[in-house]
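[recover] target loaded
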């Protein structure tokens, strides 16, 4: 049986490999080529070298979106993970109804980003109307509106991952710490968090990359208003590529830079958090 599996292994992997090449590798290589071209369609692309990249870095809206996105990613990273970890700690206590609360907190993650954005737009603008304000009147309203939205959507999902991590901690460790007279703070920072590093690695990776890639919620909640002040990187690239005739090459160059940025930050974060796992 094992020999037969090894013999026919290529047949099993071929459909997935073909789909990966057609759906990712092919478009990525084409997109990389087009980032060095001026074009309106892929058939009339003209090679222009690094011109698109130079113009992308000269675009103040792109640089502003980068800073706005980085600030959003850091804020959402801290708030989501702290809140999710706290909820996981609370819901792993032996209390009645914890399964119900887990389901309730997880459900927002099942709602699509566009729908969620329009729902929170109505809610937040309804609240801000009492103070003669709106999400599209000032960047700070849009920024915190996005934070509220993404936290409401993702905290429950991260909470489930943290709960799974908490349940893998051996009870003997906690009992030994209690016998030795460890305080709740010592128990948290000396045992719980070190043992939770694999879950922390996963959750920080997801929140960081999701923070940089946020698009649907940004489009639905603020659409980058006022005057592109709440426009994140993904939306800036979208508006450049589809909203400005003759800027398709620049939009493609921005997309390549965006890809490199997200991959680089994701790999850096994984290296940092995994090094903590090894130390522990």
């Amino acid at each position: 049986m094992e020999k037969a599996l090894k013999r026919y292994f290529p047949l099993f992997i071929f459909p997935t490999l073909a789909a990966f090449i057609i759906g990712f590798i092919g478009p990525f290589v084409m997109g990389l080529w087009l980032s060095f071209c001026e074009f309106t369609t892929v058939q009339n692309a003209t090679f222009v070298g690094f011109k698109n990249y130079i113009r992308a870095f000269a675009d103040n809206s792109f640089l502003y979106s980068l800073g706005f996105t980085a600030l959003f990613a850091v804020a959402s990273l801290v708030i989501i993970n702290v809140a999710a970890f706290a909820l996981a700690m609370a819901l792993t206590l032996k209390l009645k109804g914890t399964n119900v609360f887990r389901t309730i907190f997880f459900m927002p993650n099942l709602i699509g980003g566009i729908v969620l954005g329009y729902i929170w737009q109505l809610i937040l603008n309804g609240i801000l109307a009492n103070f003669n304000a709106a999400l599209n009147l000032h960047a700070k309203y849009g920024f915190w509106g996005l934070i509220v939205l993404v936290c409401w959507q993702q905290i429950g999902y991260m909470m489930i991952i943290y709960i799974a991590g908490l349940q893998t901690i051996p009870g003997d460790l906690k009992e030994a710490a209690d016998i030795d007279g460890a305080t709740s703070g010592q128990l948290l920072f000396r045992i719980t968090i070190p043992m939770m590093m694999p879950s922390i690695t996963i959750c920080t990776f997801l929140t960081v990359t999701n923070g940089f890639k946020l698009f649907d919620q940004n489009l639905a909640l603020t659409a980058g208003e006022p005057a592109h002040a709440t426009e994140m990187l993904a939306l800036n690239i979208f508006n450049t590529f589809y909203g400005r005739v003759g800027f398709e090459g620049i939009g493609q160059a921005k997309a390549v830079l965006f890809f490199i940025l997200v991959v680089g930050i994701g790999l850096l974060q994984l290296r940092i958090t995994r090094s903590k796992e090894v130390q522990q």
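[recover] notes: The chain has 13 helices and two strands.
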